[in-house]
């Protein structure tokens, strides 16, 4: 009982600190959408780097990934630690920099606003926002599911899953409503530094207890010889490449990441952050996933439905340190969720509520207050529904996360073409966005196949195409459809074909 109280006390103390930071940010936040959602586009290198970093630290990072390394070997580091880090850094520059340029000039807050203006289409703006919110739902649910599992493991079941997940959900709702982007970015920076430090201390502690990295690796080779050589685990080259590309492309279109492309203080800030990104990713993913792999050689037993990191630390570190690491992991989950809910509320109010209610150009005080209320109600509804879904949705954290990553990844190529190819037409964008989403959706939503079976159609689709995942094939489908349809259709009269021309804003 005393251990449980200590563990919950550490987690609770973190929440109090986060709320205090949020309260300070609230006092400094201007009552404008640009400041609430983007911190007035003033984020510097350290804060932008770590808020992006912490926003991506999730249940997938600290529980799903190490669990996969525990069951299938450390080759997962190639995906998340190396390939994904480099690919996303490139996309950060290629797409993020261009978005920052046009966002600064035109005052865009969301991806939907940017595309809607480029193609003169409210409907496209709504479609992009709706697609983003659909895929955001399972990823928010992933954080709640991970938080519930962490609390159960931390307290040995003394606190049930629904209480842990529900408590974190309530905290996130309160924090997002209070702090806005400024508070989120500040706490993200603290969380990122905190978690990065803890994971390396955890590695040092465990390795010192078992005789060093050489001994831990030797035990792994003895127990799981296939884990210490490339190609010996459960991965294929197609799977590794598909997953790395899908994750990097998906991350680029995550609302909470994509909006950070608009929030940078300068061109120099963007260039510094994308250059530092792969280094920061390696510093986190290598130790986290190696802990999962080493645990397989150390004979660690993971409870059914549990996670390997808490089990490993419980075996080799004191109770208070395990609680610290779990608190840090939960901080990572919350730093993802609060950003998701903030970005989700901006998509809801600016890309759905505004245009669909005819208030797109309104800027009076009454409209601003109404939008603020809609945003907060949207956060409450979104978080509550995802919490309920987390209680009943089967599947591992890796499966849930991979589904969301690949769903967002389908947007990347059409958006890139819209930014760089003036030949892209509105009809081409519709074809690329909707076509790739339908293709991917047919592979991941069983209800579609069920309905097809009821009407006598054989709709069973393959789980891979010559080893390549449906997510990566869907990206190619989006490319082909966007280009092909744009080539055979004329631009609409309302399209702003020169809106994204770099000439004239490169010096900003």
From TrEMBL:
Family to which the UniProt record says this protein belongs: Belongs to the sodium:solute symporter (SSF) (TC 2.A.21) family.
Ion transport listed as a keyword: yes
GO molecular function per UniProt: symporter activity
Membrane topology: Multi-pass membrane protein
Keyword set includes Ion transport: yes
Protein name per Swiss-Prot or TrEMBL: Sodium:solute symporter
Keyword line: Cell membrane, Ion transport, Membrane, Sodium, Sodium transport, Symport, Transmembrane, Transmembrane helix, Transport
Coiled-coil region list: none
Transmembrane segments: 6-26, 38-64, 76-95, 123-141, 161-181, 193-214, 234-254, 275-300, 320-342, 373-392, 404-421, 433-455, 467-488
Any one cellular-component term (Gene Ontology): plasma membrane
One BP term from GO: sodium ion transport
Places the protein is found: Cell membrane
């Amino acid at each position: 009982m005393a251990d449980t109280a200590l563990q919950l006390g550490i987690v609770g103390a973190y929440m109090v600190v986060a709320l205090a930071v949020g309260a300070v940010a609230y006092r400094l936040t201007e009552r404008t959408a640009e400041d609430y959602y983007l911190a007035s586009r003033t984020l510097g290198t350290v804060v932008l780097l770590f808020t992006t970093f912490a926003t991506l630290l999730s249940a997938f990072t600290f529980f799903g990934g190490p669990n996969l390394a525990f069951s299938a070997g450390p080759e997962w580091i190639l995906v998340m630690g190396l390939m994904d880090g480099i690919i996303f850094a490139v996309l950060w520059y290629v797409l993020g920099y261009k978005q920052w340029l046009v966002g600064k000039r035109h005052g865009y807050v969301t991806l939907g606003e940017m595309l809607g203006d480029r193609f003169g289409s409210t409907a496209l703006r709504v479609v992009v926002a709706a697609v983003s919110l659909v895929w955001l739902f399972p990823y928010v649910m992933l954080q709640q599911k991970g938080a519930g599992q962490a609390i159960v493991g931390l307290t040995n079941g003394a606190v049930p899953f629904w209480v842990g997940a529900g408590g974190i959900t309530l905290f996130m709702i309160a924090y997002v409503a209070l702090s806005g982007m400024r508070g989120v970015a500040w706490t993200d920076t603290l969380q990122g530094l905190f978690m990065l430090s803890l994971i390396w201390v955890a590695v040092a502690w465990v390795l010192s207890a078992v005789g060093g990295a050489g001994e831990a690796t030797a035990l792994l080779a003895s127990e799981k010889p296939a884990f210490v050589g490339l190609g010996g685990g459960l991965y294929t080259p197609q799977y590794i490449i598909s997953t790395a590309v899908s994750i990097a492309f998906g991350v680029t279109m995550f609302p909470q990441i994509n909006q950070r492309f608009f929030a940078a203080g300068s061109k120099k800030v963007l260039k510094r952050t994308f250059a530092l990104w792969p280094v920061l990713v390696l510093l986190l993913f290598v130790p986290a996933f190696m802990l999962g792999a080493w645990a397989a050689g150390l004979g660690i037993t993971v409870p059914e439905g549990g996670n390997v990191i808490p089990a490993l630390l419980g075996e080799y570190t004191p109770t208070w340190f395990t609680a610290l690491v779990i608190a840090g992991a939960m901080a990572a989950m919350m730093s993802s969720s609060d950003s998701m809910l903030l970005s989700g509320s901006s998509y809801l109010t600016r890309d759905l509520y505004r245009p669909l209610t005819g208030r797109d150009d309104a800027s009076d005080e009454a409209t601003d207050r109404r939008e603020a209320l809609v945003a907060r109600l949207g956060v409450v509804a979104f978080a509550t529904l995802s919490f309920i879904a987390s209680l009943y949705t089967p599947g591992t954290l890796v499966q849930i996360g991979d589904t969301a990553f690949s769903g967002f990844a389908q947007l990347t190529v059409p958006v890139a073409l819209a930014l760089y190819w003036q030949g892209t037409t509105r009809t081409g964008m519709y074809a690329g966005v909707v076509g790739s989403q339908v293709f991917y959706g047919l592979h991941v939503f069983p209800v579609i196949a069920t309905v097809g079976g009821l009407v006598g159609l054989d709709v069973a689709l393959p789980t891979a195409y010559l080893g390549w995942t449906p997510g990566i094939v869907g990206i190619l489908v989006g490319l082909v459809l966007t280009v092909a349809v744009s080539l055979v259709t004329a631009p609409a009269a309302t399209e702003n074909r020169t809106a994204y021309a770099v000439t004239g804003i490169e010096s900003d």
